[in-house]
Amino acid sequence: MLAETICSAVSAAGLGIAAVTAYRRRFLAATRIAAYALVPLALVLTGLVDWAASIVFDPVVWAGFGLLGLAWALFLTTRIVERRSLRSGARPAGRKAARGSSAAPAVAPGASAPSLGGGGAQQGPRQAPAAPADDFSDIEAILKKHGI
Questions:
Q1: How many whole angstroms separate alpha carbon 47 and alpha carbon 44?
Q2: pLDDT tens digits, residue range 9-58?
Q3: Which of 4, 33, 61, 93 allows an S-S link to 18, with CB 3.0 to 4.6 Å?
């Protein structure tokens, strides 16, 4: 009952301010103030104020919020501990390491030999990487073309 009275008073005060603003010929601002002033009254009429008041003043609801906070804190704590254990090199409990013949598992086990980078037959002599001067020649040509 108190919440409805407060919301109604706020709406009435807001509408009064909107009327004074409209009297000063600032109609756009007055319309905006009136819109804001009608929101608390609309909340009272839809019953949201009663619902919110029943949540705020009910100790059982606060106990539920407390349990939700505790659950969230437990989830957060386990994530932090798991990340720290991964950084230190330890494996998290409950997960088994992939054991294979090589130390690092293949990214794509069904990939062909050339895509793996050298496990298959050589297709010809490898060329040395281009010299740094060759890399900048294209850039120099573009800059010269634009007069820079």
A1: 5
A2: 999 999 999 999 999 999 999 999 999 999 999 999 999 888 888 888 88
A3: 33
